[in-house]
């Protein structure tokens, strides 16, 4: 539409301008740009539309004021010279269209507008800035969007198994805002920075296969989430902005680069097979040693085992927990001899914690034998039930008494196990199972208890329940924490 | 023991340090008599003694508890009734016939605190009373606790102190021949304790007891003195081995007999109802420190030393 001031068309042309801008934007690719101008009562605003490396429309603007009808430029900038010279304005700036507001234009602008010649001029109700942002928001993607993920590459001709950074497709070229895609990712144990969710595009090198093209980060967000599988929904809010739904905590923008994160990717994931944590808890105890009575001591054992389960739960990919409670043998005819009891077997952490809490208030018989506990029978029970299919076994014993010996004990004068079970032999049998070498042992023991079978029960981790326990370290020593490995991106199998 | 004293009235005294099992021995006596094939029974003729008999028997057998350490010199008058066999010749050339006489013997059992054996108790009223009771008795049950000897090692010192004082009293009696005139039954206690049991086992002194319904082993009679010697040698003080020599110095060796005993007997396995050599001890301590009996009480060699003294005295007429 040509036009001097008198030739300005139509009433209001917001829709038409929107369409023209959309068409212009579609033609912008690579380093190409286009400009549009808005003439208002006392200003001219120049907009330059381009695309960034991801194809996201970028809108830049310059504003020039008219005072008393005369252009006033205080600082020279990109278009200040063009603004002062109508010829240069239409030759160099070359706006694709001009939008003028309904206001009366100052004399200088009317003069500039009268030379518009082939540049269409439109009257719009909405500011041009709003029209441009609406166009940008509705514009289709010009590059594919992917989520940066890690994937396990099995060992093959080209070397050992490794972890590779790759892209999980999210949105394809041509898709517009509102598109959604569902993906399942695994978040691995990592450091306090959490897992990074990076939306990337690929560098435009058609000569390379897509996966070989370098990834460029469009958006990086992070969240410290518990390890595990997450079903995410990625929503395309607009070009250049993706929202992830399905995480238990909000994502934050950490201000890191993709290159820095790539450097943190480990060669391979630390072995984290499923774990079977067996908690053996002594429910007798008569306050021997320091710090309180039997109930107090039992509560401490329960407390620390709960802590351990909580820590292990936060890390282990597949954690099963068993709880075996054992007391003292009834050594007299008038005292019942109750066998060790399985309170939970291959249960979830929450179920195991409930089973442990059920032990609170356990009433000890005043005729209870105080010098030993059925540790040997508890170990036998564990050996009989244990199966590698339940996960790598981790046996943690919380107690303090020695086991009943398998026979006459002239050195410590401990009354033997009525079933003649040998605790040391049971441990050897456990270790001699085909996968026995994979069993790890931890002891949360009473302060005065040491030596004998407790040395072996605390082979990999030991702590006394009356002290503050570094449970993170305790769990790490048992392989319940993937300590020191940073896995910055989600993993997809 | 005064010359010419009626032996059935003179009584039997008990000697031994604290916690050597003197009171427990008395508690087990009634049950031990019941388990005998012979017809000996224990009864009383006064209320105080009956109360003692009831209390002591009930504590161990029914409640599984043990008597508290004795604080005073208790003299218990229990009557032991039974038969004593004697031999009678028929005419000048006739054969001998054995005759059973029904007898009742008052057991004036003196149970004194073990502490009275300490040298620093010399001259105290209770100590004097104990020495008098010992002097008046015909027989002495001497309790040698090998476990206490292993941990405390005070048997020699305490026994020697008492016996030398007793010797001083008895030596003033007419007809004193340089030795104490008592019949002495030495009781090596706590055979059920694993340490005592294993020592006897390792020395090859245990033999099966064919009469035991529960399969208890026993120490051969001929080995009791040797076990006493062997256990004395591991005394904490190093003087334990002097105790046997000391006893033979004060008493005529012909008047001493040795027994390996356990007032509560061996543990009987609850499942098999049999003795099992892997679990012998029939006593344990609870968290409060109170000793409790684990299973049924089947006393070992509790009645035998008493009856030995009785028969020895009966044979004297």
What does this structure look like?
The complex is a heterodimer of chains A (493) and B (317). Chain A has 493 residues and is an alpha/beta fold. In chain A, 24% of the residues lie in helices and 28% in strands. The longest helix of chain A has 22 residues, at 294-315. Chain A is elongated and about 115 Å long. Chain B has 317 residues and is of the alpha/beta class. Chain B contains ten helices and eleven strands. Chain B has helices at residues 7-10, 22-34, 47-61, 125-136, 146-151, 155-170, 194-202, 224-232, 242-250, 303-315; strands at 12-15, 41-43, 74-89, 96-111, 139-144, 183-188, 206-208, 217-219, 256-260, 283-285, 291-293. In chain B, helix 2 crosses helix 3 (47-61). The A-B interface holds A 286-288, 331-334, 337, 366-371, 406-410, 413, 415-416, 418, 420 and B 64, 193-195, 197-198, 269-271, 277-281, 284-288, 292-296.
Structure summary:
Chain A is an alpha/beta fold and 493 residues long.
Descriptors:
heterodimer; A: alpha/beta; Nucleotidyltransferase, domain 5; Rossmann fold; 3 domains; six-stranded mixed sheet; 12 helices; B: 317 residues; alpha/beta; three-stranded antiparallel sheet; 10 helices
- The oligomeric state of the chains shown is heterodimer
The chain pair with the largest interface is: A-B, 24 and 24 residues
Structural class of chain B: alpha/beta
The residue-averaged pLDDT of chain B reads 83
> What is the count of DSSP helices of chain A, taking H or I runs of 4+ residues?
12
Going by helix content, strand content and strand pairing, the class of chain A is alpha/beta
Second CATH tier, the architecture of the largest domain in chain A? 3-Layer(aba) Sandwich
